[in-house]
Amino acid sequence: MSKYGFYPKLIVILSVVLIVFGLAGFYIGTKKAALSDNSYSKNGKASLQALKARNSLLRQRLKSLTPQENYIVVDTGMNRLYLKNGARTIREAVVSSGSGNILKDPAGKRQWVFDTPRGEYRVQTKYVAPAWTKPDWAFIEEGEAVPKDPRKRIEEGVLGAYALGFGDGYFIHGTLYTRLLGRNVTHGCIRVGDNDLKFIFNAAGIGTKIYIF
Amino acid sequence: MMRQWLAILFLAALTVPAWADLSKENYLRDNRILEEEIRLAGKPQVYFVFDLREKTAYIKARGISLRELRIKDFSRRGGPMAAAAYSLKEKKTFFKPGRETIKPRESKDNDNYKIEALELSDMPSRFTLVFDGGLRISIRPETEGVISGISNLFHSALRLLTRPLAMLWHAVRGKPYCAVDIVLNKNDARTIFWSFSEGSAAVVYHP
Predict the structure, then answer these.
(1) A58 touches B: beta carbon within 8 Å
(2) What confidence tens digit (pLDDT) does each residue in A151-186 have?
(3) Which domain holds residue B188?
(4) Quick one: closest CA in B to A15, which residue?
(5) Number of structural domains chain B divides into
(6) N- to C-terminal Cα distance for chain A?
(7) So what's the architecture of A70-212 in CATH?
(8) According to the model, what pLDDT value does residue B166 have?
(9) Nearest CB to B167: which of A29, A143, A209?
(10) How far is A49 from B71, CA to CA, in rounded Å?
(11) Disruptive mutation site among A36, A111, A115, A179 for chain B (greatest number of B CBs within 10 Å)
(12) DSSP letters along chain B, please?
C-alpha cells in the first residue's frame, strides 16, 4: 500500500504534464514570435532611404483622406454627434440613436431590428417642417392594423423642425422627447435637440458625408 | 585607456549594420500595413487600427479617425503577426448582451415608461476578438478596486496556464497563432465591443 493516495498522485502527474506542455508551448510560441520579424527582410531589396521616403508618402496619403469640408460623425455608443471640418470639431450634440430592440410581426414572418446603421452615408434629402410617413412597424408596435390608405400614415410635428435623410428611411431629425437625448431609444434614426439640429441643418448640404459607428 | 575606447568603437561598428537591418525590416513591415490601411480606407466600412507602438486604438472610416482610445498596457505572445488586414470572425465573452423583444401594444399601455434598450453600459469590458489568420486580441479593463483586481488576477493566471498550451496546440497543427492582450479604460473597452462587428477589419501596428 502506497503512503500517498491515488488522487494526490494524479494531481501531481497532471500538474507535471501541464507544466511540461506549457513550457514547450511557451518556448515554441516565443521562438516563433522572435523569428517573425525576419520574414520581412527576405523581400527587402530597397534601400533604407527609399523605404523611409515611401513610409512618409504613405502616411501623407492617409492623412490627406480627411475631408477639408464639413462632415458628420455619429458615435451611437456615446450618443454624440460631431459636426467636423478636417480635424476640427465645429459642433458637438447629444443625440439619441437606435435601441437595438427587436419587433416581430405577429401576423407574418417580418422582423425589425432597431439599430442605427453603421458605416459611411451621405445627406440625401433635407426637409423643413417634415411630416413622418409612418412605416408598417410603427402600427404593429402600437398593436394597430396597418392602414391601406397612405394618407393615414402621415403624422405631423413629431420629427421636429428639420430632417436630413441619409437613405433607407433613416433621418437625422428633431424630437419631442428631449429628456431622452443621450439614450438609445430610437428605431434607428438619430434624434437631435432643436438648437443643435438647426445648426447642423444649416451647415450640412446635400452630399455631406455622415460616418456612423 | 585607448585600447578600451578602440574596443568600444569596434563593437559599435559591428552592431551598426544589425541596427540598420532592423530598422529596414520595421519600415518594410510598416509600409505594408500602411498600404493595407489605405486599401481599407477605400471602402465605406468602419475599420479599426491598433497602434501598439503609440499605445492608441483608432476607430476609423475612409482614413478619418472617428474615435481614439488610449491603450493602457499590452503584451504579445505567439507566432508572427501578418502585415495584413485581419477580419473579425467572432467576439467571445462570458456574458453576451442580449436584445429586448418588443411586445406590441405594451408601449401604449404602459404608463411607467422604462427604457429597455441595448446600450453601451450593457456591453462587456472583458472579451476576446477572434480574427482570421490566427490573431486573437483579448481586451480587459484596467484594475479599479478590489473586485476588478481579483478578477484581473484570476484571468491573468488562467491565461498563463492556457496560453502556452494554445500556442503548442496551434504549432503542432501547423496553424498560425498570435495573441495580444490589451488593457483599456472600462468605457473604451465597451466601445470596442459595441463598435466591432463580425466581418469588421483591423490592422495592427506593432513594435
Answers:
(1) yes
(2) 999 999 999 999 999 999 999 999 999 999 999 999
(3) 2-205
(4) B161
(5) 1
(6) 68
(7) Beta Barrel (2.40)
(8) 87
(9) A29
(10) 31
(11) A36
(12) -HHHHHHHHHHHHHHHHHHHHHHHHHHHHHHHHHHHHHHHHTSSSEEEEEETTTTEEEEEETTEEEEEEEEEEEEEEESPPPSS-EEEEEEE-SS---PPEEPTTHHHH-SS-------GGGS-SSEEEEEGGGEEEEEEEPP-HHHHHHHHHHHHHHHHHHHHHHHHHHHHHT---EEEEEEE-HHHHHHHHHH--TT-EEEEE--
Residue type, position B113, single letter: Y
Kindly report the nearest CA distance between residue B154 and chain A, in angstroms: 18
Tell me the pLDDT of chain A (213 aa) as tens digits. 456 678 888 888 887 877 777 677 666 655 555 445 444 544 557 889 999 999 999 999 999 999 999 999 999 999 999 999 999 999 999 999 999 999 999 888 899 999 999 999 999 999 999 999 999 999 999 999 999 999 999 999 999 999 999 999 999 999 999 999 999 999 999 999 999 999 999 999 999 999 999
> Domain boundaries in chain A?
1-38, 70-212
Assess contact for B85 and B40: CB atoms under 8 A. Answer: yes
Cβ B183 vs Cβ B72: under 8 Å: yes
8 Å CB contact between B109 and B64: no
Q: Which residues of A touch B67 (CB under 8 A)?
A: 75, 213
- The answer to whether residues A124 and A197 touch, using CB atoms and an 8 Å cutoff, is no
Pick from B80, B123, B171: CB nearest A36:
B80
Dist CA B62 CA B45 (whole Å): 8
Give the CATH number, domain containing residue B64. 2.40.440.10
Chain B: residue whose CA lies nearest to A32: B79
Q: Using the beta-carbon criterion (under 8 Å), do A213 and B195 form an inter-chain contact?
A: yes
* Residues shown for chain A: 213
**Chain position carrying cell 419587433:** A103
Which residue carries 478619418 as its cell?
Answer: B64
